[in-house]
Design a protein that fits this description.
mainly alpha, 9 helices, AhpD-like, single chain
Length: 182
């Protein structure tokens, strides 16, 4: 059943209204993903908080884009891939990096490639990565903090990717130029 409601400030449950206001302030609109999540205020609040925490992580904007898009592409998320292409542009991430992630092509540096490889190992193996895989990630220039922050980013994207699959969330107008299909 894919008749999930896209809530706005009028239709949202009362506990979601301030969360949607926050989305409006942060994005200049209420993203359709947030409009869907508003049905469950705790879900929207958790997602917003995870998003803030990933933004405040030790990763730079290129690395955040590698995290988000690697997971989005792996999960085949019709909504998040174009949304994060738009977000990448606003974060001054190069089109070349975003296109390489969307098309699963080689990344410009070995360090970014190591981040994508480790992120996909976490996703594909449901967190069961070997000591050797963690060591390789650390040898590429990361540490235990980044191992834990990868898990945090995976949690964020699992929420959005899975909800978008179930709700068939429509792509927001600003992200339509970046539509994507695996």
């Amino acid at each position: 059943m894919t008749d999930f409601k896209l809530h706005d400030a009028e239709s949202a449950p009362s506990d979601s209204k301030p969360l949607l206001e926050k989305s409006q302030e942060n994005f200049g609109m209420i993203p359709n993903l947030h409009a869907v999540m508003a049905e469950a205020p705790g879900t929207l609040e958790a997602y917003q908080k995870l998003h803030e925490l990933v933004l405040d992580s030790s990763f730079d904007n290129d690395e955040k884009t590698v995290l988000w898009q690697s997971i989005n592409v792996e999960h085949k998320c019709h909504y998040c891939v174009p949304a994060h292409s738009g977000i990448a542009r606003s974060m001054q991430v190069s089109e070349e990096l975003d296109d390489a992630l969307r098309d699963e092509k080689p990344l410009p540096t070995e360090k970014l490639e190591a981040l994508r490889r480790f992120t996909l190992q976490v996703v594909r193996n449901r967190g069961e990565v070997s000591e050797k895989e963690i060591q390789a990630f650390c040898e590429a220039g990361y540490g235990h903090r980044q191992v834990l922050e990868v898990v945090m980013a995976v949690a964020q994207k699992v929420m959005s990717n899975y909800i978008n699959h179930m709700a068939q969330t429509p792509i927001d107008e600003p992200f339509k130029p970046f539509e994507w299909k695996k």
